[in-house]
């Protein structure tokens, strides 16, 4: 029988630093909840809003796969590998920190906030060579279907990471339904609702709710209103 865990939107950690307002699905920085450390290899899911012309100063990471999904505005990235880039809604950014990398992320706009998801996934290989990549997606490719945005395979759709993980975005009209089939045995699926209302198996989810399910091979999803959501399939064992 499948196992599951529900993380309602209003149960997340709430960190308001003035220039940054972040909601933490899992323990992060000053928010610590021993029951909310991670979901398998999924370690961080932060829902961030950064004020105009503000941002994260240069800071280090190592041995983590870091994915950013912009939802609104423009986010400027600079790193110690020499990359300078701007990501917008429709883009996906990935950074394998590996042996170590330093980066900064700033809101490029002088008058509008930037909103994005910051996601950390534990890698399956330690001390890899650091790398950065970003791609632009066609939002039409997720209309009433699942658009793959991340996988372990550099030759597959989306960005890739050092982990047996697959991410999909979806933009469903009301009453659209689908069956998600796991890519790898033993993985779990974490569902995060960006907007709207969906039903995952028998669990009703609403905007910014999170829901993890594992010990199953398929998951039925139905939109109960027009809805946008993110699916993150990750390994559950060893993390």
Topology:
Blueprint: E1 3-7, E2 13-16, E3 20-24, E4 42-50, E5 55-61, E6 65-72, E7 74-79, E8 84-88, E9 91-96, E10 101-107, E11 114-121, E12 131-136, E13 146-151, E14 159-160, E15 166-172, E16 177-181, E17 187-195, E18 198-200, E19 203-205, E20 210-214, E21 218-223, E22 227-235
Summarize the structure.
With 239 residues, the chain is mostly beta strands. Helix content is 0%, strand content 55%.
How does this structure look, described?
- The protein has strands at 3-7, 13-16, 20-24, 42-50, 55-61, 65-72, 74-79, 84-88, 91-96, 101-107, 114-121, 131-136, 146-151, 159-160, 166-172, 177-181, 187-195, 198-200, 203-205, 210-214, 218-223, 227-235.
- The chain has 239 residues and is mostly beta strands.
- The chain contains no helices and 22 strands.
- The chain has two domains: 13-136, Jelly Rolls; 139-235, Jelly Rolls (Sandwich), CATH 2.60.120.
- 36% of the residues are buried.
Q: Order of helices and strands, N to C?
A: EEEEEEEEEEEEEEEEEEEEEE
Q: Which fold name is given in CATH as the topology of the largest domain?
A: Jelly Rolls
What's the architecture of the largest domain, going by CATH? Sandwich
Mean pLDDT: 96
Largest sheet: 7 strands, mixed
Lateral arrangement of strands in the main beta sheet: 1-20-17-22-15-13-14
The overall strand count is 22
The CATH C-level class name of the largest domain: Mainly Beta
Helical content stands at: under 10%
Poorly predicted runs are none
Strand content: over 45%
Number of domains: 2
């Amino acid at each position: 029988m499948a196992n599951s865990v529900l993380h309602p939107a209003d149960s997340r950690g709430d960190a308001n630093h003035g220039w940054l307002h972040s909601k933490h699905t899992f323990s992060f920085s000053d928010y610590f909840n021993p029951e909310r450390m991670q979901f398998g290899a999924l370690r961080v899911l932060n829902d961030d809003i950064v004020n105009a012309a503000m941002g994260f100063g240069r800071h280090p990471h190592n041995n983590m796969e870091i994915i950013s999904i912009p939802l609104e505005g423009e986010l400027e990235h600079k790193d110690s590998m020499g990359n300078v880039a701007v990501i917008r809604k429709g883009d996906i950014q990935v950074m394998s920190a590996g042996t170590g990398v330093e980066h900064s992320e700033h809101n490029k706009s002088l008058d509008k906030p930037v909103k994005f998801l910051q996601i950390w996934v534990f890698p399956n290989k330690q001390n890899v060579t650091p790398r950065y990549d970003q791609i632009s997606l066609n939002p039409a490719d997720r209309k009433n279907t699942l658009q793959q945005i991340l996988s372990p395979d550099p030759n597959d759709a989306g960005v890739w990471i050092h982990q047996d993980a697959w991410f999909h975005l979806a933009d469903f009209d009301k009453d659209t339904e689908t069956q998600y089939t796991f890519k790898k045995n033993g993985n779990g699926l974490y569902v995060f609702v960006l907007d709207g209302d969906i039903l995952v198996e028998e669990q009703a989810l609403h905007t910014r709710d999170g829901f993890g399910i594992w010990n199953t091979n398929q998951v039925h999803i139905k939109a109960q209103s027009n809805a946008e959501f993110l699916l993150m399939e990750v390994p559950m064992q060893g993390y």
